[in-house]
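Regression report. Comparing outputs from two consecutive submissions.

Submission 1:
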Amino acid sequence: MKTAVYAGTFDPLTLGHQDIIERASELFDRLIIAIAASPAKRPLLSLQERVDLAKEVLQAHPQIEVCGFSGLLIDLMQEQEARFIVRGVRSGADVDYELPLAQLNRQLAGVETLFLAPTPSKSFIAASYVREVASLGGDISALVSPKVAQVIHKKYNAANPIASQSNL
């Protein structure tokens, strides 16, 4: 069984992430979406919220599993008996960042990294853009699934009750 891991913070899970996930799931028998705790990034959503959202959004794909993790990705991969890492790359800057990591992971653990370019219509979507637009009360429905949009808007409205009252 060929198992791959697609790891990230997924704060939040975007349609760009989903594009990579759905396409990668066709290449492997088992795809694990490994959601990193990433406390240094100070995520908007807790690890549990991100895991729960991903499970809900991806539930129609039985070969996809979702888990949270902290620590080294290669440790998780050894636990899960995964030999492949999936990474989405949107630009040359992403490749410049990802390539040395792929080489390091290959050296340390003998794992291969598969780079997937997003579908062009989703190549501009970044979780940071989603958070920025949502924080300013903008429409994120073209960037994330309806469930993710609902949770993100609720999170920002709870953080800023005056703004949420003015939108009524």
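Submission 2:
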Amino acid sequence: MNKKLIITQAYINGKFIKGRKSFDVINPATGEIIASVPDLTIADCHATIDHAHDAWPSWRDTESTVRANTVRKWYELIIANKQDLARIMTMESGKPFTESLIEVDYGASFVEWFAEEAKRIYGETIPAPKTGQRLLTIRQPVGVVAAITPWNFPLAMITRKVAPALACGCTVVLRPASQTPLTALAMAQLAHEAGFPAGVFNVVTGKDSKGMGTELATNDKIRKISFTGSTEVGRSLMAQAAETIKKVSFELGGNAPFLVFDDADVDAAVQGAIAGKFRNSGQTCVSINRFFVQDAVFDDFAKKLTTAVKKLKVGNGLDEGVQVGPLISQDGLEKVKKHVKDAVDKGAKLLAGGKPKKGLFYHPTVLADVSPSSLIAGEETFGPVCALFRFNTEEEGIAMANDTEFGLASYFYSKDVNRCWRVAEQLEAGMVGINTGLLSNAAAPFGGVKQSGIGREGSKHGLDEYTEIKYLCFGD
């Protein structure tokens, strides 16, 4: 283990600093204290914004190739330290080590992608309506960016926001979740080694998520805020950001449907269900929350899914062969227990799991014939629970899938190409997985519709969130 990546100081204006107070980072698999990091104040956050604001003009005017090369160097350092980053991530988030390794690659892919895209921030020329005029547009960095990231993907959610911001010439103040600050600070160490100038990338740690969020959302030196988290918090941040008309991009709550039609390859659907449901113990924004299975294949799918779920190994993510780690907190565990009890009380059949283990662990669970009135039908569980609902017709399945205020990810399985097009177009979601339970990559736009967010991360559209279009008109 590379001890230099266990950073216990915040990163502000090119320096690692201690705070007057600190808080502990807990391993959810063991309950042990991993480290203590600074519990910074609102005043510290305010001062950090000032540093980022002061650093912006110079970074904005730096040649695009220099910015691209610096971001690329950050990518190379992330890959070189993959094992250590994954171990830190597993210790503080609880996810299995194999998943953490995959996340490092996934997160690094955004850094590589935007290092390349930094050289392709194109404007356009416009045919002029008058002789002698010349009309064109250029794209310029928006300014100081506030990035607020969650605990469930402590590395990838950073790179999806920070890499495009830095690549196009913005400076960044990052506020990572208090459960997983060590991954963010390790990434700051690597960014420091990559050679970003002082003030360009900053990491503020602290327990006061509401206070820091308010400072980042209302400070008039912040021009853009990017947040991944709950719809409730996103709604509050959006209202606060409206005071200074900030540019915003939010990836919020999900309630992902997974439809299995009667013409599906059931075995493939089961594999997709396992991949899309149990990653990070079901604690992902695109995790499947509601399984809608057409009546003709319901029993077959339920039986095969139950068999597969019972084989999953639960335990400490650092142990060999573990596939399902702990919940992140006691609150998370209590929500899972509440949802399962409510579903069973309302008539659901318990086919597997249905009970907690010692600590923050919960047995992977399958519930069949869940009532539409159950809590799990309307709320995101964020845990290792498969809730199976029946439907009869294609129209009914689509209607059930769309019966939610959320619209982040959705999935379905069918071998009928015409049905694939019909269903994909009618599902109210920003992303649709067709015969797959995994859909995200750096080249694709990630984001939702309805109350699941605004804006897109990744792909060429990811840069749009951090730039403004400026129109230039040359007279005769």
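Expected: both submissions complete independently.
Actual: both completed, but the second showed a warning that disappeared on reload.
Relevant detail on submission 2: The CA atoms of residues 63 and 437 lie 40 Å apart.
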